[in-house]
């Protein structure tokens, strides 16, 4: 159904720009724009555990706070925080920082399509920037299944919706796609560390999407290299 | 419960005093401390009263609002109590302790007012199934020197006596919509018959004897105490507070004691309320501002 | 965000310096840090930065029922997130902004009415303090006002019977919010209750703990005054500060209007770049030849001499703009020959030893720390 | 648009002149302070009626800091709690507010105001609690009455302060005449309202200002006028407070106290 | 039948002392006490612009060049040698924390007490462990101020037979500024009871106990008090409260005057405010006549 190898165009990602060290008060910070999505992530840590209940003798405690572009954080944001916490715990060598806490604060700025992938990539860059030791890097790719069953990687979706802040109105914000996927890959084995899907699709479509995204993720890893190289050269 | 420290020896002194029928302020076991009352103290409330038993200082404000009757009691109004253990009374109230005490008193009031013999909720109904009055009775404890239950129930009674509910001149049912016309004249209003409204009475057992109107120190050294709600000749609620146990005979004696005492107290209270009302009308006393 | 510990030496140093009319960042007593405003791709998203203090603001709206007391007016709600557990500063900033924006009637709330007594637009301004290097209130106020000025709401037509339709942007153009005036907060830290210092840094704020915040619009109207912290001042000082604040507000309003106009032109030409235009450092060429450009970037960073007139510094930003497209990572395939640190990590899945990987990551993180020094 | 706040005869909506205060009654020591012998007792209290606003303030302390009061680094712990009674406002019953921004703001302001006048160095390592209960108010700027009542309560508790803190509001008519002590009705009608808390010193024109608040806007050139009006109001309030305090004091004093 | 009395607040008379403004001048907060430079500032004052100003509302007091203002009502400010009545709030290692109505809790070190039996020896670990046997939380004691620490907190001692743990009786709390400083604060009143008038405003009324029998001041007598004694104790208590309500200085003579004035009433009648004020004022008049 999909001519993944043949059609190079399909692998196009939206342009990414990033700047590190933008916030003087945090240990690692980044602003990332990825097409119509952008966010700021700052990482603080490892620090003293704020609440003793969270103290873990064996590893660092991760705290993620996700602020939406507008409105107060709701269930949706809690859910995203949880996912980010999980994948960060996978890539961070938390065992190196026992009895301490690592905070990640995310501020959504332009909530275009694929904002969640953008946020995860930003987290990765911010963590690199903070100097927290990591097992591997990670890259997230967003892709959708349109109503003609075509897979599109990282689409630009100029949605017509007005920004609203109540949770109910946010929830009904409908998508014109059949399904969308966000895959997160780690750099060591390029294995999937998190998948987040919406809508319905066949297993075949899912496999294709994963392959496609994996291919696309390489570009993001390249971008990390590029970024690191550029920063390294400044010195 | 409000707390004032007492050493063992002080407690024993109080205990022996109760045995001798000569309490720490000279009262006998059946005596009340002097009480003071004033109604209509808060202009923004439809009914209000300040009631003090010695230094237990209670302020009650009542606001009626129009509400829809609950479906299982279509021809009854509603009454809601809220006790606010203001930090002015005692800073011990800050935090959990105060909330517990507040909900305990609130519940007790709710129970004692829930009986149709004590308080006629039907009189608060405007249009069965559609409209009724809901009375919000908010109680502020300004100061606490023991015997909160009695002081609060008396203050509530005074405020209810003072309550003026705007008179509904007509109520029309137009389809599902209710059209209410309230009287424009502020002096044209409904009042509540306060005569049989219940009074709560705290009885503390210290040693082998029971006392009424315990001071804060006496509350602290009582082994067990009970709150009895009395309306006319009837009991509306009995509730033991602060642990301890009563012998069945003691409890019987105690109830007899409260009924007679409460009846007497009720008479005195109504007399005072009527006297105040008469004075306000006749003398046109320049309205005394609150707390002065 | 971490609160640095203030030592007695630092405190004494700052106090003494101020007494001699000196500030530790070389600014004059009535001199402000550089201001920059960037608009996002969405209407109503703004990042404002004042020196290193950065604030993000976004406006959103939705339809709801009006308050019974004001049946034909929309409402505005302001929410401030400080990102720290401290509650007090957050309340203070929120209330000052509420007074400045809501109670000065700068927004035409009546124009937000759809059907009187039934449906109105509710505006919500979410302000997120990203980085606090002092004077959060000025920056937050500028961000909030520019976000409101930038915001567009969908058009809406009422068709009798309380029915109404919200038009999509494709059907009808989005409409801006009507702002009568732009109130601007100007914060003066008060030393000894006598010496006002414009645009205090976080160090100065922590030393004095008292400040006078005046909100003034371009018409020299005072919209709010607020005296925060433990302090006693004289009326004369308030008068003096308000005159200075009026000057400042005029410049800021001009700057906001210019920035809005620039954004409008960009959007018309279909070149809206969103926040990517704020990104400077990806410009740094990988081969490190173009030192001139770096110097330029560095210059704008360190150039603290911004007099009121020089606040904009927009020349440098524009320059960066034009370069951004070229040097950002775009969809072009990048060459495969790169072998930087990070690349090594990717290629080392078979080296199972964690220590190995860690070393590599370590070097990269080291690099970044050094680079931090250079950049700031 | 701003309705005219002053009639042709120069009278305001409630019949006052432009520089006239509303009725103020106050009393110190309204709550018994010797009721308890533990440290949480009330050490000073005051009640004030100002226009339609009735406020009770009570002080507990200075005392040994309670363990839960947290912050160790602060040498002087000053807690302020403000509450509005549910029946305090005309019309609908007020919900019990907890952690509301409005209350939070008043509390922070009070803290700052009084920390700047209490001789803090005398109360090292101690805790002082100020509790405010607003029994009745008409929706106007009750912060004035709260500040004035708190001043009385602090004085009743014998807390060392530099001066009385007096708070007052002022507004402006269309013709640019400053109005003293704005009532709620006048506030609704849309004049700008300036609230200040000042330390009106005897025989000193240049007052120290501890707090300023402004709602709505006016031209900078009018600032002086409205400010002067506020200061005048503060002086007047000072006189009223002083009378109440002296009245209370003479009750206390007997010839013995000096011979001690 | 129960005794119930309900008064109407609208009829409540306004009691006021109506003392001639006479020789006591009230200074209010912020008022300049003196413009002369050669004075030293004491409690209740502060220095600004070279003037000594009052920081509280009260009566100025001058001892040589030291000027201080005594507030009408405040927490107890201790001085060495004061007699206090206090209550144990906390027991920690080697010390008791005592509530003395002052700004900070006072301390009673285990080394500042006479051990039971009057032994004079070093305190050992065993004594530390049995501290609770001597004084436990909420126990009352009388003591003397031994030292005032720099932060204002007090250190107490009970190294005299007259000090120690208090047994049965009633504690009354009044404003510390109403306590008249005298040589003796322990009184056996002619009416047959004893009072300890603590400088800190805590007054202890109790039956007379023979000091020698107390054995070091930590024994307690828990036998019932006779009804006669009890009545006197309660009457004295009510009298002291009446004096406090009328702001009359409290010392042995004033207590006795009030006691004598109260004899025409029943003890419980003294709870009524009008009786209370009458007793207080009459006592006050008698004191004024005395001068």
Automatic annotation (TrEMBL), chain B:
Pfam families: RNase_PH (PF01138), RNase_PH_C (PF03725). The keyword Iron-sulfur does not apply. Residues 31-166, 197-258 form the Exoribonuclease phosphorolytic domain. It comes from the Eukaryota. Coiled coil: none annotated. Keywords: Cytoplasm, Exosome. One of its GO terms (cellular component) is cytoplasmic exosome (RNase complex). The keyword Cytoplasm applies. It is found in: Cytoplasm; Nucleus, Nucleolus. InterPro entries: ExoRNase_PH_dom1, ExoRNase_PH_dom2, ExoRNase_PH_dom2_sf, Exosome_comp_Rrp42_subfam, PNPase/RNase_PH_dom_sf, Ribosomal_Su5_D2-typ_SF. One of its GO terms (molecular function) is mRNA 3'-UTR AU-rich region binding. Belongs to the RNase PH family. This is Ribosomal RNA-processing protein 42. It comes from Chironomus riparius.
TrEMBL record, chain C:
It holds the Pfam family RNase_PH. The keyword DNA-binding does not apply. Residues 31-154, 181-247 form the Exoribonuclease phosphorolytic domain. GO terms for biological process: exonucleolytic trimming to generate mature 3'-end of 5.8S rRNA from tricistronic rRNA transcript (SSU-rRNA, 5.8S rRNA, LSU-rRNA); nuclear mRNA surveillance; nuclear polyadenylation-dependent rRNA catabolic process; rRNA catabolic process; TRAMP-dependent tRNA surveillance pathway; U1 snRNA 3'-end processing; U4 snRNA 3'-end processing; U5 snRNA 3'-end processing. Belongs to the RNase PH family. PANTHER family: EXOSOME COMPLEX COMPONENT RRP45, EXOSOME COMPLEX EXONUCLEASE RIBOSOMAL RNA PROCESSING PROTEIN. This is Exosome complex component RRP45. It comes from Chironomus riparius.
UniProtKB/TrEMBL annotation, chain D:
Signal peptide: none annotated. Pfam families: RNase_PH. GO terms for molecular function: RNA binding. Residues 20-159 form the Exoribonuclease phosphorolytic domain. GO terms for biological process: nuclear mRNA surveillance; poly(A)-dependent snoRNA 3'-end processing; rRNA catabolic process; U4 snRNA 3'-end processing. Belongs to the RNase PH family. PANTHER family: EXOSOME COMPLEX COMPONENT, EXOSOME COMPLEX COMPONENT RRP41. This is Exoribonuclease phosphorolytic domain-containing protein. It comes from Chironomus riparius.
TrEMBL record, chain E:
Residues 75-147 form the RRP4 S1 domain. SUPFAM superfamilies: Eukaryotic type KH-domain (KH-domain type I), Nucleic acid-binding proteins, Ribosomal L27 protein-like. GO terms for biological process: CUT catabolic process; exonucleolytic trimming to generate mature 3'-end of 5.8S rRNA from tricistronic rRNA transcript (SSU-rRNA, 5.8S rRNA, LSU-rRNA); nuclear polyadenylation-dependent rRNA catabolic process; poly(A)-dependent snoRNA 3'-end processing; regulation of gene expression; TRAMP-dependent tRNA surveillance pathway; U4 snRNA 3'-end processing. Residues 30-60 form the Exosome complex component N-terminal domain. Residues 169-206 form the K Homology domain. It holds the Pfam family KH_6. Its main location: nucleus. Gene3D superfamilies: 2.40.50.100, Nucleic acid-binding proteins (2.40.50.140). GO terms for cellular component: cytoplasmic exosome (RNase complex); nuclear exosome (RNase complex). It comes from the Eukaryota. It is found in: Nucleus. Belongs to the RRP4 family. This is Ribosomal RNA-processing protein 4.
């Amino acid at each position: 159904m999909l001519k993944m190898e043949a059609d190079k165009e399909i692998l196009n990602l939206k342009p990414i720009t990033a700047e590190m060290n933008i916030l003087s008060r945090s240990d690692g910070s980044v602003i990332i724009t990825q097409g119509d999505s952008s966010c700021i992530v700052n990482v603080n840590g490892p620090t003293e555990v704020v609440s003793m209940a969270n103290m873990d003798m064996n590893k660092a405690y991760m705290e993620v706070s996700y602020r939406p572009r507008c409105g107060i954080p709701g269930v949706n944001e809690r859910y995203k925080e949880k996912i980010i916490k999980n994948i960060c715990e996978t890539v961070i060598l938390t065992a190196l920082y026992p009895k301490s806490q690592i905070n990640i604060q995310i501020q959504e700025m332009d909530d275009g399509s694929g904002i969640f992938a953008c946020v995860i990539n930003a987290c990765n860059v911010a963590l690199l920037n903070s100097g927290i030791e990591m097992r591997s890097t990670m890259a997230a790719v967003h892709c959708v299944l349109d109503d003609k069953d075509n897979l599109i990687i990282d689409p630009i979706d100029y949605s017509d919706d007005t920004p609203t802040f109540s949770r109910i109105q946010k929830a009904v914000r409908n998508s014109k796609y059949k399904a969308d996927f966000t895959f997160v890959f780690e750099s060591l084995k390029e294995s999937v560390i998190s998948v987040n899907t919406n809508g319905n699709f066949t297993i075949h479509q899912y496999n294709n999407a994963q392959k496609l995204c994996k291919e696309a993720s390489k570009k993001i890893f390249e971008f990390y290299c590029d970024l690191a190289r550029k920063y390294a050269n400044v010195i | 419960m409000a707390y004032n420290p007492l050493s063992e020896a002080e407690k024993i002194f109080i205990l022996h005093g109760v045995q001798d029928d000569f309490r720490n302020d000279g009262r006998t076991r059946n005596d009340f401390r002097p009480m003071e009352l004033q109604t209509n103290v808060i202009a923004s409330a439809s009914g209000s009263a300040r009631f003090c038993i010695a230094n237990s200082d209670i302020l009650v404000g009542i606001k009626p609002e129009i509400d829809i009757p609950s479906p299982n009691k279509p021809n009854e109004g509603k009454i809601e109590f809220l006790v606010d253990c203001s930090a002015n009374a005692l800073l011990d109230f800050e935090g959990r302790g105060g909330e517990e005490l507040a909900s305990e008193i609130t519940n007790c009031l709710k129970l004692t007012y829930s009986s149709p013999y004590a308080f006629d909720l039907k009189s608060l109904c405007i249009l069965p199934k559609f409209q009724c009055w809901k009375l919000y009775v908010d109680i502020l404890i300004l100061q606490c020197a023991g015997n909160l239950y009695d002081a609060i129930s008396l203050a509530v009674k005074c405020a209810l006596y003072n309550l003026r509910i705007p008179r509904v001149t007509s109520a029309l049912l137009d389809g599902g919509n209710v059209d209410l016309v309230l009287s424009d004249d502020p002096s044209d209003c409904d009042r509540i018959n306060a005569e049989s409204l219940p009074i709560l009475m705290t009885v503390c057992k210290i040693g082998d004897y029971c006392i009424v109107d315990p001071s804060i120190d006496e509350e602290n050294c009582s082994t067990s105490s009970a709150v009895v709600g009395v309306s006319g000749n009837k009991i509306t609620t009995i509730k033991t507070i602060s642990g301890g146990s009563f012998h069945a005979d003691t409890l019987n004696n105690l109830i007899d004691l409260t009924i007679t005492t409460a009846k007497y107290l009720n008479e005195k209270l109504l007399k005072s309320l009527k006297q105040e009302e008469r004075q306000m009308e006749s003398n046109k006393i320049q309205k005394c501002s609150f707390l002065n | 965000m971490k609160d640095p510990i203030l030592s007695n030496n630092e405190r004494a140093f700052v106090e003494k310096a101020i007494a001699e009319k000196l500030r530790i960042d070389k600014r004059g007593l009535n001199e402000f840090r550089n201001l920059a405003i960037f608009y996002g791709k969405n209407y109503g998203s703004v990042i404002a930065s004042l020196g290193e203090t950065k604030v993000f603001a976004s406006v959103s709206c939705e339809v709801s029922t009006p308050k019974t007391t004001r049946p034909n007016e929309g409402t505005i709600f302001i929410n401030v997130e400080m990102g720290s557990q401290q509650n007090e500063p957050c309340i203070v900033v929120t209330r000052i902004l509420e007074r400045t924006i809501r109670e000065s009637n700068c927004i035409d709330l009546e124009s937000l009415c759809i059907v009187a007594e039934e449906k109105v637009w509710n505006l919500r301004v979410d302000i997120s303090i990203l980085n606090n290097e002092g004077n959060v209130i000025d920056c937050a106020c500028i961000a909030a006002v520019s976000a409101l000025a930038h915001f567009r709401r969908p058009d809406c037509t009422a068709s009798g019977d309380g029915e109404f339709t919200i038009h999509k942007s494709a059907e009808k153009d989005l409409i801006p919010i009507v702002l009568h005036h732009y109130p601007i907060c100007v914060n003066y830290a008060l030393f000894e209750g006598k010496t006002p210092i414009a645009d205090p840094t976080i160090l100065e704020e922590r030393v004095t703990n008292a400040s006078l915040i005046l909100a003034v619009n371009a018409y020299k109207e005072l919209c709010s005054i607020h005296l925060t912290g433990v302090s006693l001042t004289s009326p004369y000082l308030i008068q003096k500060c308000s005159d200075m604040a009026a000057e400042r507000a005029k410049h800021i309003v001009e700057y906001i209007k210019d920035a809005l106009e620039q954004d409008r032109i960009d959007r018309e030409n279909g070149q809206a770049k969103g926040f990517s235009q704020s990104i400077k450092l990806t410009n740094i060429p990988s081969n490190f030849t173009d030192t001139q450009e770096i110097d330029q970037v560095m210059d704008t960073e360190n150039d603290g001499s911004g007099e009121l007139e020089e606040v904009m510094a927009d020349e440098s930003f524009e320059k960066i703009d034009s370069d951004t497209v070229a040097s950002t990572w775009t969809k072009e395939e990048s060459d495969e020959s790169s072998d930087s640190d990070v690349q090594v990590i990717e290629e080392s899945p078979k080296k199972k030893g964690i220590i190995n990987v860690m070393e590599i990551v370590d070097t990269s993180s080291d690099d970044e720390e050094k680079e931090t020094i250079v950049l700031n | 648009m701003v309705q005219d706040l002053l009639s042709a005869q120069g009278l305001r909506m409630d019949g006052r002149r432009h520089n006239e205060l509303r009725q103020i009654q106050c009393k110190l020591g309204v709550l018994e302070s010797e009721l308890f012998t533990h440290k949480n007792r009330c050490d000073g209290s005051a009640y004030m009626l100002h226009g339609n606003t009735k406020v009770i303030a009570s002080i507990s302390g200075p005392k040994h800091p309670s363990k839960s009061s947290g912050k160790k680094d602060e040498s002087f712990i000053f807690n302020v709690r403000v509450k509005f009674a549910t029946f305090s406002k005309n019309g609908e019953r007020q919900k019990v507010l907890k952690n509301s921004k409005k209350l939070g703001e008043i509390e922070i302001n009070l803290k700052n105001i009084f920390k700047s006048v209490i001789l803090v160095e005398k109360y090292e390592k101690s805790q002082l609690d100020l509790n405010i209960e607003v029994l009745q108010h008409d929706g106007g700027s009750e912060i004035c009455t709260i500040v004035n009542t708190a001043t009385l309560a602090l004085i009743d508790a014998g807390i060392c302060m530099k001066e009385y803190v007096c708070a007052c509001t002022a507004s402006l008519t269309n013709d640019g005449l400053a109005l003293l002590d704005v009532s709620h009705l006048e506030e609704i009608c849309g004049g700008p309202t300036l609230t200040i808390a000042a330390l009106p010193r005897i025989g000193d024109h240049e007052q120290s200002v501890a707090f300023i608040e402004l709602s709505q806007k006016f031209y900078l050139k009018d600032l002086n006028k409205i400010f002067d009006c506020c200061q005048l109001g503060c002086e007047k309030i000072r006189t009223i407070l002083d009378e109440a305090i002296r009245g209370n004091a003479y009750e206390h004093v007997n010839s013995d106290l000096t011979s001690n | 039948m129960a005794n119930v009395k309900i008064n109407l607040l609208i009829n409540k008379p306004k009691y006021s002392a109506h003392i001639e403004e006479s020789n006591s001048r009230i200074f209010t907060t912020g008022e300049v006490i003196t413009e002369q430079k050669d004075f030293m500032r004491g409690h209740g004052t502060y220095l600004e612009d070279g003037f000594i100003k009052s920081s509280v509302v009260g009566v100025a007091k001058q001892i040589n060049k030291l000027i201080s203002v005594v507030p009408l009502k405040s927490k107890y400010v201790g001085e060495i040698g004061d007699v206090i009545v206090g209550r144990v709030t906390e027991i920690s290692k080697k010390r008791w924390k005592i509530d003395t109505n002052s700004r900070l809790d006072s301390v009673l070190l285990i080394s500042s007490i006479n051990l039971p039996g009057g032994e004079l020896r070093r305190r050992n670990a065993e004594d530390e462990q049995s501290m609770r046997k001597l004084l436990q939380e909420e126990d009352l004691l009388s003591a003397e101020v031994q030292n005032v620490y720099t932060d204002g907190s007090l250190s107490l001692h009970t190294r005299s037979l007259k000090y120690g743990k208090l047994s049965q009786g009633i504690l009354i709390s009044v404003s510390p500024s109403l306590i008249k400083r005298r040589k003796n604060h322990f009184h056996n009143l002619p009416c047959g009871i004893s009072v300890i008038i603590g400088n800190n405003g805590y007054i202890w009324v109790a039956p007379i106990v023979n000091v020698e029998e107390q054995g070091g001041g930590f024994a307690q007598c828990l036998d019932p008090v006779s009804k006669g004694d009890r009545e006197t104790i309660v009457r004295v208590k009510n009298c002291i409260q009446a004096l406090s309500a009328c702001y009359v200085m409290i010392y042995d003579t004033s207590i006795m005057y009030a006691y004598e004035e109260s004899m025409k009433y029943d003890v419980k009648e003294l709870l009524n405010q009008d009786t209370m004020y009458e007793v207080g004022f009459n006592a006050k008049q008698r004191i004024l006549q005395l001068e």
